Amino acid sequence: MSFLARHRIILPVVSLTVLLAATFYMQPRAMSYFGLNLLFNLAVPIALATIAQMMIIMVNDIDLSLGAFVSLVACVTATILNDTPALGLLILLALILSYALLGAVIHALEIPAIVVTLGMSFVWGGLALFILPSPGGASPDWLRTLMTVKPPFAPMAVVASVIIALVAHLLIIRSGIGTVLRGVGGNARSVAQAGWPVIRLKALAYGLAGLFGVLAGMALVGLTTSADANIALRYTLLSIAGVILGGGEFIGGKVSPTGAVIGALTLTLAASFLSFLRLSSDWQIGAQGAVLILVLTARLIFRQKGAEA
Amino acid sequence: MNILTKPWLWSCVAAALAYALILGLTSGRGAGELAYAALSFGAFAAIVGLGQMLVITLGPGNVDLSIPATMTLAATLALKAMGTDPGTAVLGLGIALAVGFGVGVANYALIYLLRLPPIIATLAASLIYQSLAIWSNRGLRIKPPEGLADFATGRFLGLPNVTWVGLLLAIVVWIALERSVWGRWLLATGQNMRVARLAGVPVELVRASTYISVSVFAALAGYLLASFSGGAALNMGAEYLLMSIAVVVIGGSSIAGGNSNVPGVWGAALFMFLVVSMLNSYGAGAGARNVLTGAIIIGIVIAASTRRART
């Protein structure tokens, strides 16, 4: 294996650096504590959602309901958790458990995750509408304080991203159970042969995804201070893109938590960068697509180098 | 083979059940109108579903997420070119289909040349198509020419015209899948791409033609939908993303590819419309409707999978 193929993390790091340099070149004033805070403001929930999606992709599945799930969590956080914290926490816990249960059901009945999560996206969306029929609600004060805290040296969004990446890295790459979980994506049968209960592992992976999804929804409410049932629908696609951008693969349990967080940061920055370009608003979305294609094209270099070796 | 083992049966049974439940509530009133509406709206879902089915048949990881953007772009450009002038329907159709063809080629180029996973490639490209539609449309709502609007909302031999189009397309797809070499190639590619390639199947040609077909189908659906509903809107395709995947799966095609099911797509398309009408007529709110729709989708998939496992 060549150097580049072994160190897949280089690609997301380079993309983020290039994009950051371009942003600073366009708008030198962004090169400050305040500027960075603005640039990466919404990165924290996206990074958390991307890690959630990564947990699912790690076991060879894909979650099409994540955006609806994060929206539901946001609605719960902005209403029930704010009014009656104990009940709110209970509901959020139940949501995490239902994700774990989903993983177990998907494995036990051998039904495709893409379809089940597609159906679940309707369920989450419907529940969110139940809880919050029209946009509104309020963020719990402690959450608001947590999300707007101003740590020394680096803005909240950057510090939080580093912490998320670190925690996910320790959990998935360094710990024993993380290695087994990635093994489920690599070869579920050999993991089963080695004596591991795959169904529980899948439930664990899905439960972790639920946990990070809940954190994403809460972080989002802390930033926006209110919620609506459609607030995070785009996170489904953003999170998938973030995982792949970070060097993950759809199959084989090949994922990188650090890469995923950097991928999420890159996607967030791409939006900020494009607004600096003074691009007509018609092309904003399209330019995001173009940036995505451009960055992913760089994967070719890695892939081919790996294949030659 | 027993009729009960046909996977497409379940979506049709479910559609019939939903239909009966609504009529039970209204004690038989409005049966004709309901069937007519289901056939009209179901046709759009069936057309995009047939395209999505072909792509999903290609095997794991193949899915087209650019369907909504393609529908919007094709409809926007076609209506803009027609500019409500009479006698331009064919021109508009040509433009819509050309847009579909172009989108399909672009999608496949990203997948093949840049080796992007189809999910990501079609997702990223769809953002660009969406921008193109926004840029060309400028928020204007151009009405379709009168003749075309009449055709899209009209009927022939008691069935809506759009249903005829959808049925015709279903028959063409069925013949292509079951009776043509291309169909055999497609199924072989979906079952095992490596083996298919070694057996001499022009795998890349099959994939290219499939991705072009799905976009052309989506463009056609967009063109018809815009004519049907009196103009193109930027969000007109939004609901067809999940819908297209749902009808394929409920219809009994294997999401793992290599096995497709044309009648099931139509059954599922009718079912998806009827289940929403059913929940509406039972007075369910938007929230409850979504929850139940999701639960029913999952229920059908579980029922179909245990059924398959037993046979």
From TrEMBL, chain A:
<feature type="transmembrane region" description="Helical">
    <location>
        <begin position="33"/>
        <end position="52"/>
    </location>
</feature>
<dbReference type="GO" id="GO:0022857">
    <property type="term" value="F:transmembrane transporter activity"/>
</dbReference>
<keyword id="KW-0812">Transmembrane</keyword>
<feature type="transmembrane region" description="Helical">
    <location>
        <begin position="231"/>
        <end position="251"/>
    </location>
</feature>
<keyword id="KW-0472">Membrane</keyword>
<feature type="transmembrane region" description="Helical">
    <location>
        <begin position="64"/>
        <end position="81"/>
    </location>
</feature>
<dbReference type="InterPro" id="IPR001851">
    <property type="entry name" value="ABC_transp_permease"/>
</dbReference>
<feature type="transmembrane region" description="Helical">
    <location>
        <begin position="9"/>
        <end position="27"/>
    </location>
</feature>
<keyword id="KW-1003">Cell membrane</keyword>
<dbReference type="Pfam" id="PF02653">
    <property type="entry name" value="BPD_transp_2"/>
</dbReference>
<dbReference type="GO" id="GO:0005886">
    <property type="term" value="C:plasma membrane"/>
</dbReference>
<feature type="transmembrane region" description="Helical">
    <location>
        <begin position="283"/>
        <end position="302"/>
    </location>
</feature>
<feature type="transmembrane region" description="Helical">
    <location>
        <begin position="87"/>
        <end position="106"/>
    </location>
</feature>
<feature type="transmembrane region" description="Helical">
    <location>
        <begin position="258"/>
        <end position="277"/>
    </location>
</feature>
<feature type="transmembrane region" description="Helical">
    <location>
        <begin position="203"/>
        <end position="225"/>
    </location>
</feature>
<feature type="transmembrane region" description="Helical">
    <location>
        <begin position="153"/>
        <end position="173"/>
    </location>
</feature>
<keyword id="KW-1133">Transmembrane helix</keyword>
<protein>
    <submittedName>
        <fullName>ABC transporter permease</fullName>
    </submittedName>
</protein>
<feature type="transmembrane region" description="Helical">
    <location>
        <begin position="113"/>
        <end position="133"/>
    </location>
</feature>
From TrEMBL, chain B:
<protein>
    <submittedName>
        <fullName>ABC transporter permease</fullName>
    </submittedName>
</protein>
<keyword id="KW-0812">Transmembrane</keyword>
<feature type="transmembrane region" description="Helical">
    <location>
        <begin position="208"/>
        <end position="228"/>
    </location>
</feature>
<dbReference type="GO" id="GO:0022857">
    <property type="term" value="F:transmembrane transporter activity"/>
</dbReference>
<feature type="transmembrane region" description="Helical">
    <location>
        <begin position="291"/>
        <end position="309"/>
    </location>
</feature>
<dbReference type="GO" id="GO:0005886">
    <property type="term" value="C:plasma membrane"/>
</dbReference>
<dbReference type="InterPro" id="IPR001851">
    <property type="entry name" value="ABC_transp_permease"/>
</dbReference>
<feature type="transmembrane region" description="Helical">
    <location>
        <begin position="156"/>
        <end position="177"/>
    </location>
</feature>
<feature type="transmembrane region" description="Helical">
    <location>
        <begin position="89"/>
        <end position="110"/>
    </location>
</feature>
<feature type="transmembrane region" description="Helical">
    <location>
        <begin position="240"/>
        <end position="258"/>
    </location>
</feature>
<feature type="transmembrane region" description="Helical">
    <location>
        <begin position="34"/>
        <end position="59"/>
    </location>
</feature>
<keyword id="KW-1133">Transmembrane helix</keyword>
<feature type="transmembrane region" description="Helical">
    <location>
        <begin position="7"/>
        <end position="27"/>
    </location>
</feature>
<feature type="transmembrane region" description="Helical">
    <location>
        <begin position="116"/>
        <end position="135"/>
    </location>
</feature>
<keyword id="KW-1003">Cell membrane</keyword>
<keyword id="KW-0472">Membrane</keyword>
<dbReference type="Pfam" id="PF02653">
    <property type="entry name" value="BPD_transp_2"/>
</dbReference>
